[in-house]
Amino acid sequence: MAQRYVRVKTSEGQIYYGLLQLNRMVNVLDAPPWLGGQATDLNLETENYQLLSPCAPSKIVAVGKNYGAHAAEMGTPPPKEPLLFLKPPTTITANGNPIYYPKQSQRVDYEGELALVIGDRTKNSTIEEARNKIWGYTIANDVTARDLQKKDGQWTRGKGFDSFCPLGPWIVRELSAGARIQTFLNNSSSPKQSALVTDMIFSPEFIVSYLSQVMTLLPGDVILTGTPKGIGPMNVGDLVRVEIEGIGALENHVIATDN
Q1: The CATH number of domain 4-51 is 1.10.357
Q2: Residue pair 175/137 in contact by the 8 Å Cβ criterion
Q3: Taking the CB of the first residue and of the last residue of the chain, which one, N or C, has fewer CB atoms within 10 A?
């Protein structure tokens, strides 16, 4: 099994990066792993930590309509260049935490995605250089208030509510080219979304290179690479699970917002 890099909070409130062991013990690192963090003598038992999102990025950059079949279901042709948008870091929530259904929306959708974690400062990178700037891979759900996205004509509000970017549960360094991404609702055995990551229009390294011509990417930044076809609504009480082969599963319940 691939090494799983996590970010945890102890019962005393301290936050660490670490390596998750098969017995769920966490071997604490002395720094984020993409900054050269090394193993320490500190090990945390399961009852002594809470799993957080696996990184705390300065920004989340997302790519829209990066699967041809999804572009078609949205009624648009495939984009000729990556379609970029930002989600604020406050959208991030960890595996197992709730997705809050905002009162302003009548239609909130799941969008399962492969997420990239940047390992080094990246500016004006070639595609070949970009391959080495991707430190690892995790799972994301680009939750979207679809009605607000359409109403506003731009995507900030519809994509930007707190908890609208479940991320995790951990980061792995390698991903098979043939990995499948699937999204399930309420433990159904039939996925709502299912595609190979190779079905992307623009590859991860192309996306990183393209982005780096626009903005400087910093260590720990997250890039969402787009969702396959099959997007659909979630309702209060639903459980949504996004799986990617070689990484694992990201699960979150949908609950009503309390304000």
Answers
A1: no
A2: yes
A3: C
Report helix, strand and coil shares of the chain as percent, to nearest 5.
15, 40, 45
Please state the pTM of the whole predicted model.
0.97
- DSSP annotation of 36: T
Closest by CA position to 17, among listed 4, 33, 1: 33
Pairing of strands 248-256, 99-101: parallel
Q: Where are the domains of the chain?
A: 4-51, 60-256
Domain 60-256 has CATH 3.90.850.10: yes
pLDDT tens digits, one per residue of 191-233: 999 999 999 999 999 999 999 999 999 999 999 999 999 999 9
Name which of 178, 165, 182 is nearest 248 in CA terms. 182
134 Cβ contact partners less than 8 Å away, ≥ 6 residues apart: 116, 117, 118, 119, 204, 205, 208
Could you report the per-residue pLDDT of 28-70, keeping only the tens digit for each? 999 999 999 999 999 999 999 999 999 999 999 999 999 988 8
SS3 track for 135-161: EEEEEEECCEEHHHHHHHCCCHHHHCC
The closest of 169, 10, 31 to 97, measured between CA atoms, is 169
Asked whether this chain's domains 4-51 and 60-256 adopt the same fold, the reply is no
- Inter-residue contact 7 to 56 (CB < 8 Å): yes
d(CA 213, CA 215): 6
